[in-house]
Amino acid sequence: MKIKNILVSQPAPQNEKSPYFDLEKKYGIKVDFRAFTKVNGSDVREFRKQKINILEHSAVIMTSKAAVDNYFRISEQMRLTIPISMKFFCVTESIAYYLQKYITYRKRKIFFAQKTFDELLDLMAKHRKEKFLLPVAKTHKPTITKKLKAAGFSFSKVVMYETVSADLSDLTDIHYDVIVFFSPVGISSLFENFPDFEQNGRIIASLGKSTANAVKKAGLRLDINAPTKEYPSMTMAIEKFILENNK
Questions:
Q1: pLDDT, tens only, 122-171
Q2: 3-state SS string for the chain
Q3: Beta partners for 181?
Q4: Which of 60, 91, 115, 160 lies at a CB distance of 3.0 to 4.6 Å from 70, suitable for a disulfide?
Q5: CA distances (Å), 79 to each of 59, 82, 95, in order?
Q6: Alpha carbon distance 50, 119 (integer Å)
Q7: Segments making up each domain of the chain, as ranges
Q8: What's the CATH fold of domain 5-36+166-245?
Q9: What's the topology of domain 40-160?
């Protein structure tokens, strides 16, 4: 099957450096973006039930932009002033720079990994005396907390938001050759919005083990799976598929 268009179930990138745009230019295909999920923040009452004091922590682990947004939203709603001494440890550079939305970057102690959480753990190892706060979604992977416990870090996990299905009524038809998913919630959203969806010849791509399991559980055929040792990113895996099929 020759790939002509791709639907990425995430918001469009905010800059032109996305590797998806490189795929467009390199292979003459069309890539569209449409978020299949949305984030609902926990309210202050729900947060307080967890009995977590934000200011008792000296460092924060940021694993997503949603975590950043909701950490500062909850802090503002509780009228907390985040001290200048607070350290931020981010899984990626893009998340670290996203902090500029809320704080003056150059005045803060901000650390970030290049690609993996294991890299971030190495950075955190130099700050073992800190008490870390880990903002998470209501449904989240246990991998990170397991690694933090195994490494002996002092941390608190706190639920600050929930990822739910988005309203896709503006998508009258899923006519794309490839649909790319990044979470099990994205799969749920597809069938909530299109209960009669049939894969037929469409290519399904998924990122991560839990998303791949959700694809199979939904009775869909998984054609592109990332990351792998050979293809550590979704765009690399898609490019491999294009090279094999767009001949």
A1: 999 999 999 999 999 998 878 899 999 999 999 999 999 999 999 998 88
A2: CCCCEEEECCCCCCCCCCHHHHHHHHHCCEEEECCCEEEEECCHHHHHCCCCCHHHCCEEEECCHHHHHHHHHHHHHCCCCCCCCCEEEECCHHHHHHHHHCCCHHHCEEEECCCCHHHHHHHHHHHCCCEEEEEEECCCCCHHHHHHHHCCCEEEEEEEEEEEECCCCCCCCCCCCEEEECCHHHHHHHHHHCCCCCCCCCEEEEECHHHHHHHHHCCCCCCEEECCCCCCCHHHHHHHHHHHHCC
A3: 206
A4: 160
A5: 19, 10, 24
A6: 29
A7: 5-36+166-245, 40-160
A8: Rossmann fold (3.40.50)
A9: Rossmann fold (3.40.50)
Same fold, 5-36+166-245 and 40-160: yes
The overall pTM is greater than 0.85:
no
* Rounded distance between C-alpha atoms, residue 223 and residue 26, angstroms: 21
Closest CA to 65 of 98, 43, 87, 37: 98
Gap between the Cα atoms of 61 and 56, Å rounded? 14
| AA letter at 135 | P
pLDDT digits (tens, 9 = 90+) for 162-200: 999 999 988 877 789 999 999 999 999 999 999 999 999
Least Cα distance to 103 among 51, 60, 163 occurs for 60
Q: Let me know: does 24 contact 52? Beta carbons within 8 Å.
A: no
